[in-house]
């Protein structure tokens, strides 16, 4: 897959928000309690938005996930991220995909509480930048660049890596060139988690509901913005991700657990 996709987990967005144009709702194999659909907004013409079909059925508010990769094609049946996005939406998240993150962040910051976005809760948007957590998906040795390292080195919010590699954590142990250097570059005091699944990333994401990757992404979303401490167990307990086949390295997560 080209490019390293970044996921930015922002503040909550109130459930009554309705983007301007709706695409056809598809029946999919997501596991959550809400039927997901894809929509578009005239305010974000480059993006596809994944969300629960009936926003009024979602109590309280929606966590917002923003892709930082504009290279994907949401209209292609071969797009491996669609299943992951739909899985997150089925658990009550709103996902902005296939467009750059900056316009979404700017819109949430400037238009919260106004017109089409009147039900965005501005009080729940984190200080600028709006990001509450950063995830790096499908990390590969060849894609671990100095630019990526600079991003994680400057991160002040929790950083999570989700990877599928046939060699397990081999990429984590490539010293200066691999993910180990990225992981070690996270500043002292900033929580970080790295998990690797055996297998090829495309195959893992191609499983029903994005497989174990979708399950991990759901827990990340629920914990980092929803404050769901039960979801945190997947990342902090040996009976969590490790018991499901992940190889894990973590640091500093204890400060996030209440």
TrEMBL record:
InterPro entries: AB_hydrolase_fold (IPR029058). Keywords: Signal. Residues 1-22 form the signal peptide. It comes from the Eukaryota. This is Uncharacterized protein. It comes from Ascochyta lentis.
């Amino acid at each position: 897959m080209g490019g390293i996709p970044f996921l930015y987990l922002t503040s909550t967005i109130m459930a009554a928000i309705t983007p301007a144009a709706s695409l056809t709702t598809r029946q999919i194999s997501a596991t959550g309690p809400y039927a997901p659909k894809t929509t578009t907004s005239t305010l974000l013409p480059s993006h596809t938005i994944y969300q629960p079909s009936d926003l009024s059925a979602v109590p309280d508010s929606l966590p917002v996930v923003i892709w930082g990769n504009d290279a994907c094609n949401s209209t292609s049946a071969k797009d491996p991220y669609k299943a992951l996005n739909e899985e997150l939406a089925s658990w009550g998240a709103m996902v902005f995909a296939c467009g750059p993150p900056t316009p979404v962040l700017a819109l949430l910051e400037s238009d919260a509480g106004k017109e089409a976005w009147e039900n965005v809760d501005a009080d729940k948007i984190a200080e600028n930048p709006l990001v509450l957590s950063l995830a790096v998906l499908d990390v590969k040795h060849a894609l671990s660049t100095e630019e990526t390292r600079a991003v994680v080195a400057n991160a002040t919010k929790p950083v999570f890596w989700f990877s599928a590699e046939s060699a397990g954590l081999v990429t984590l142990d490539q010293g200066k060139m691999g993910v180990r250097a990225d992981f070690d570059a996270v500043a002292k005091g900033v929580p970080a988690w790295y998990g690797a699944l055996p297998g090829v990333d495309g195959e893992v994401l191609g499983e029903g509901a994005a497989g174990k990757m979708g399950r991990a992404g759901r827990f990340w979303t629920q914990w980092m913005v929803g404050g769901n401490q039960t979801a945190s167990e997947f990342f902090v307990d040996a009976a969590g991700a490790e018991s499901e086949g992940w190889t894990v390295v973590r640091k500093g997560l204890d400060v996030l657990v209440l």
